[in-house]
Write a structure and sequence with these properties.
With about 425 residues, the protein is mainly beta. It has 4 helices and 23 strands. Strand 3 and strand 4 form a beta hairpin.
């Protein structure tokens, strides 16, 4: 009997030890880099009603509208989705000729590449699936989907701040008033990027607060970013922050914040087609405005796609209004080999080359306190090194307030 009891005890000890080893291995696995990547992907990629393989290699997941990443935010747990803005801005331009896509031969609508292989059903939102490789390219998982710098400050008099962190800009801007939104029609290109850790983008910025540690920003436009997306495609993007890009906010919907209501357009997906030098020109139109009734900041893409909104509680200064609006281009200049990058801004050509060759923003407008869209007053321009990237603004009947911008980066006058 004693031997039997001893054998039973030994078996129990072996079983407990084995269970402990398995538990320890599971804990170690969860804490391992591979385990952390798996958990992060599970957080980002919500269960899909339907998935669409895009010709560019992306997978677009159609996620039920109430399961999107926004609702991971603790303050959005019991949020009632606002399916339409209470008010649109008054005085929208008639963009029939130009807002979605245009060339000298007439309108050509811009689509996203994944549309070739299907659409998301009503009641879902299209979300670009994040893959393991996307996370592994980031400097850290905590920084994945986040910018590493502040917005351009055209009012800075400190020359050391002019290209802070190697970022260079060619922008138009207005400041000195209260702004409740902005609009632009943006020429779409596919600029060449010299190094994978650099990017080129063209966007508008809605800014509130100072350029210190409390800057609020809402941003939207197009970008080429090999680091973020793993390719050189031109993609629609948004960004937000309430603390100068430190701990809050992200690109697209890679964190909780922006609430998408549209089933047609995916943040971060490829824009198609793209403008050609001395050939067909294509534009996108972006409008961001603060709903005067609910206070949320809404985004519209083109004439018909109201994409969704940033709840006003995400922000401090922008909970009231913006104090500066910027439109234009930005690149990262990492100075490979100690010389200026050859990463292009816009079309990669200087403004003086004009239509069909240089990139442009046209019909730039602001939304005032009476929810009226109007031409901006007192537009300034700003660039750190005009021999590398430049900006030239103007005004006419067809294009309203506009500017050409961009450049090739490294050249004989920009060594």
């Amino acid at each position: 009997m004693a031997r039997a009891r001893g054998g039973g005890l030994a078996a129990w000890v072996v079983a407990v030890a084995a269970a402990w080893v398995l538990w320890a291995a599971a804990v170690a696995g969860a804490r391992s880099p591979a385990g952390r990547v798996h958990r992060h992907l599970k957080r980002l990629n919500k269960p899909a009603v339907k998935s669409i393989q895009s010709p560019d290699g992306d997978i677009i997941d159609c996620v039920h509208i109430s399961h999107q990443p926004a609702f991971d935010h603790p303050l959005l747990k019991n949020h009632t989705i606002q399916f339409r803005p209470a008010y649109h801005p008054e005085g929208l331009y008639d963009d029939a000729k130009s807002s979605i896509g245009s060339n000298s031969g007439g309108e050509k609508p811009i689509l996203q590449m994944w549309h070739r292989n299907g659409r998301c059903p009503a009641g879902t939102v299209p979300i670009r699936r994040t893959r393991k490789d996307d996370l592994l390219r980031a400097s850290s998982m905590r920084r994945y989907g986040r910018k590493h710098h502040t917005a351009p400050n055209p009012l800075s008099v400190d020359p050391n701040m002019l290209s802070e962190g190697g970022h260079q800009h060619a922008i138009a801007y207005v400041e000195g008033d209260k702004y409740y939104g902005a609009k632009a029609t943006i020429n779409v290109w596919e600029p060449k990027i010299q190094q994978a850790n650099e990017f080129s983008l063209s966007q508008l910025w809605i800014l509130g607060g100072s350029f210190g540690e409390d800057l609020n920003s809402i941003e939207a436009g197009w970008q080429v970013s090999p680091d973020l997306y793993g390719d050189n495609n031109t993609r629609l993007f948004t960004y937000w922050t309430s603390d100068a890009y430190q701990a809050t906010g992200c690109y697209n919907i890679l964190c909780s914040g922006f609430i998408q209501i549209n089933s047609e357009i995916a943040m971060g997906a490829s824009i198609f087609p793209i403008s050609n030098y001395a050939g067909s020109q294509y534009d996108i139109s972006i409008l961001i405005w603060k709903d005067p009734k609910e206070g949320n900041w809404w985004m519209q893409f083109g004439k018909e796609y109201v994409l969704g909104y940033w709840p006003s509680f995400l922000f401090s200064y922008l909970a009231d209004s913006a104090s500066m609006i910027e439109w234009g281009g930005e690149v990262v200049n990492s100075e490979p080999d100690g010389t200026h990058t050859s990463t292009q801004m816009g079309s990669g050509h200087f403004p003086e080359e004009g239509f069909g060759k240089a990139s442009y923003f046209k019909n730039i407008q602001v939304v005032d306190s009476s929810n009226q869209l109007s031409a901006p007053k007192g537009v300034g321009t700003f660039t750190e090194q005009s021999n590398c990237y430049d900006v030239q603004n103007g005004n006419n009947g067809d294009w309203g307030t506009y500017f050409y911008y961009g450049g090739p980066g490294k050249n004989s006058n920009c060594p």
